[in-house]
TrEMBL record:
InterPro entries, alphabetized: Homeodomain-like_sf (IPR009057), HTH-type_TetR-like_transc_reg (IPR050109), HTH_TetR (IPR001647), MT1864/Rv1816-like_C (IPR025996), Tet_transcr_reg_TetR-rel_C_sf (IPR036271)
SUPFAM superfamilies: Homeodomain-like (SSF46689), Tetracyclin repressor-like, C-terminal domain (SSF48498)
Descriptive protein name: TetR-like C-terminal domain-containing protein
Gene3D superfamilies: Homeodomain-like, Tetracycline Repressor, domain 2
Entry superkingdom: Bacteria
Pfam families named in the record: TetR_C_33, TetR_N
Organism: Kribbella ginsengisoli
Length: 189
């Protein structure tokens, strides 16, 4: 019998909070059960298994981030939209490092994170409209944006830029300007 007040959504929210506090790698069914003061078996009437729990956390994070990105990009285009998009990702990763890590896992194409992941792809494509890229070039540009932003954010979260003489924010701004310049002058196939 399901425990009163315990739902899949409540478990997902708690798992996301645990991920932010202790790291996504430490989010397990056992850790979540300890958090609620119940046995692991009590959770299985709400979630299928650890993989399902992790996918739910990713779906929650992707949804939260997509909402933030969409709100920050509203009415913007070109370099302004690119900056709003990138800054939203960076801010979210800083505020929710565990949830950000959840989004990086390999997700099932038909799992709970599929729809929010498609929304992210659509938001990324919407930035690229201002750059007049071909459909093939858009794919390459999406991959470049993802690799650049994720790489920078991951290194920053790991503290890689703490001991350098130039502030991380300054380098971030240069990176965004460089991305805009590259997208504006995209090489022909």
């Amino acid at each position: 019998m399901p425990r009163v007040g315990m739902t899949a959504d409540r478990l997902t929210q708690a798992a996301a909070e645990l991920a932010d506090e202790f790291g996504f790698a430490n989010v397990t069914v056992s850790a979540l059960a300890r958090h609620f003061g119940v046995k692991d078996a009590s959770l299985y009437s709400h979630i299928k298994n650890a993989k399902d729990l992790r996918a739910r956390v990713a779906a929650l994070a992707l949804t939260e981030l997509a909402d933030q990105v969409a709100a920050n990009m509203a009415g913007r285009s070109g370099e302004d939209a690119l900056a709003a998009f990138a800054n939203s990702y960076r801010d979210y990763a800083t505020q929710h490092p565990g949830r950000y890590a959840a989004m990086q896992q390999d997700l099932d194409a038909d799992g709970p994170a599929a729809a929010p992941a498609r929304r992210h792809a659509d938001l990324t494509r919407s930035i690229l409209h201002a750059y007049n890229l071909t459909p093939e070039a858009q794919i390459d540009a999406i991959r470049l944006l993802g690799a650049t932003l994720h790489g920078y954010i991951t290194l920053e979260l790991q503290g890689s830029y703490r001991h350098t003489p130039r502030p991380s924010q300054s380098s971030w701004q240069v990176a965004l300007t460089a991305l805009h310049t590259l997208l504006t002058n995209w090489p022909e196939d």
